[in-house]
Give the backbone structure.
Amino acid sequence: MKKSTAIIILGIVLVLMVSLVLIFKNSSSKKTTLVEDNTQPDLPINVMALAERPFITLSPDPTGRSLNITIDNALESGSIEYEMIYNASGKQEGALGTIYLGSEKQPITKAILLGSKSGGGKVTYHEGVTGGSITLTYDTTRLKESWNYLHFDPADPTFSSTDGKFSVTLPKTALKKDEVIVTMKTFGYPKTGLPEGAKVVAGPYGYFT
């Protein structure tokens, strides 16, 4: 009887030991995994006061194959990231880039190709460009405006902005036929040349050749 009791007790001890080992193994295999969220927060668009914005414009180069972005009155450090979306022959095209503000003295001008460039250096220009939009990530906010890409026609020398709030009629001899014109609501405005006490509350608009 004592032998049977000893065997039973030994069996219970073995079962308890096995159970403890399994519990310890299961608990040690459960590890806490920390997931890092690298999602960039959505920045507000066009909430920066007009007077605080850098003065930024788009103008065509002499060939009309690129747009020159010119930046002035911006921070002297950091960068501006741009995303340009435009229509070309009914298709949507785009361009991305970064401009480093501390790299040179302002105003800074950089060319944005209206086309694509292969790894081997071959350039393909996009035909039939009509206009688009450009979004800038600047400081802790974003700025976005639309632009028109037009060709001067002496027979109809009137052109306007994308929203129709800005319109200009030039003399028929002001520009050469088919010369490229970009119209847009500019980002900010030049801080020099304004009358003392003047305050800009909307716009401004401009055309660039």
